Amino acid sequence: MLETDKLTKKFKDTVAVNNVSLELKKGESVGLLGPNGAGKSTAIAMISTLLKPSSGDVRLHGKSVLKEPGDMRRVLGVVPQKIALYEELSAYENLKFFGRLYGLSGNKLEQRIDYVLDLVGLADRKKELVKHYSGGMQRRVNLAAAMMHEPEVLIMDEPTVGIDPQSRNHLLETIRRLNHEEGMTVLYTSHYMEEVEKLCDRVYIMDHGKVIAEGTKEELKAILSDQETVWIEFDQSYPELFKKLSEIEGVQHTDAEERSLKLIIPKGMRLLASLFHEAERHGAQVTNVHVQTPTLEDVFLRLTGRTLRD
Amino acid sequence: MKAVFLLQWRRFYRQPLLVLAMFGLTVIFVSVSAAGGQDEPAIVPVYTESMEQEQALDWVERLNSEQQFTFEWMPEPEARSYVAEGDVPQAVELMETDYRLLVGREDPARLALDSLLRRVYSEELRLEDAAQEVPDIRELMDSALSDPALEISAGSLQGNGDGDELQLLFGMTLFFVIYTIMFSLVRIVDEKRTGTWNRMIMSPVRKWQMYFGHLGFSFLIGFSQIALIFLLFWYAFGFELGDRFWLLIVIAACYTFAIVALGLLIISLISKPQQLSAVIPIVATGMAMVGGAFWPIELVTNEILLAAAKALPITYGLEALTSVAVYGNGLQSVMMPLAMLLGFGGICMAIAIRLLEWRSAS
Question: What is the interface pTM, i.e. ipTM, of the complex?
Answer without folding.
Answer: 0.77
